[in-house]
Amino acid sequence: MARYWWQCLSCGERPSWPAVCRSRSVAAFIWDELAPSGWDQRLLLRKCQCNRRSLRITYRFRGSDPERLSVKHIVGLTPHDGYLPMLWETFRHSAPSRRWVDFKYQRGRSPWGLTKRLVLERRELARLLRAYERATGAAVAPGGAKRTITGFWRRSAKTSL
User: Fold this and answer.
1) What values do phi and psi take at 74, rounded to 5?
2) Residues 79, 8: one domain?
3) Same structural domain, 134 and 100
4) Helix or strand run (H / E) with residue 147
5) Which of 9, 13, 26, 79 could form a disulfide with 84 if both were Cys (CB 3.0 to 4.6 A apart)?
6) Residues near 57 by Cβ (< 8 Å), separated by ≥ 6?
7) What pLDDT was estimated at residue 143?
């Protein structure tokens, strides 16, 4: 399973979870702080000891891959029966201007789903993309998430008949 930590992008400092926030792990942080805040994106960028606001949640791309990813945004839907689907916008340390979208989920406070595939119904995906747009002020897909997703499904349905 991936291990998550806070890391300063300026000086490389890696403070412990409790030194940065009230939580002891990424799963607890999401469940206890980020989701209850209404997905306040300011919680994802913290001030480091070097006095720069460049402390972000970081993790390895894959277990054996030395490449690190840092989190720019995390947005999720309202938990239903302990199930919390999320969209993470991340970037590789080797190419910080290139953004990646990673779909993850949690079951309660367990981090188990953070490394598993997320499968969503179309309407849940559309809701997640709209929630991302509300929380970040930016659309994942150019032209707006709703229009792009709906247009894609209409074209797909026509071509599959």
Assistant:
1) -135, 125
2) yes
3) no
4) helix 145-159
5) 79
6) 4, 5, 6, 26, 29, 44, 70, 71, 74
7) 62
Token pair for residue 49? 């000891």
Q: What is the DSSP letter of 158?
A: H
Say what the pTM is. Answer: 0.83
Backbone angles phi, psi at 21, to 5 degrees: -145, -175
Strand order across the 4-8 sheet: 4-8, 55-60, 68-76, 83-92, 95-107
* pLDDT computed for residue 63 by the predictor: 64
Helix (H, G, I), strand (E, B) or coil at 4: strand
Q: Which amino acid is at 87?
A: L
Structural domains of the chain, count: 2
pLDDT in tens, 27-70: 999 999 999 999 999 999 999 999 999 999 999 877 667 789 99
Tokens 């779909």 correspond to: 103
In a 13 Å sphere around the CA of 15, the CA atoms on its Cβ side amount to 18
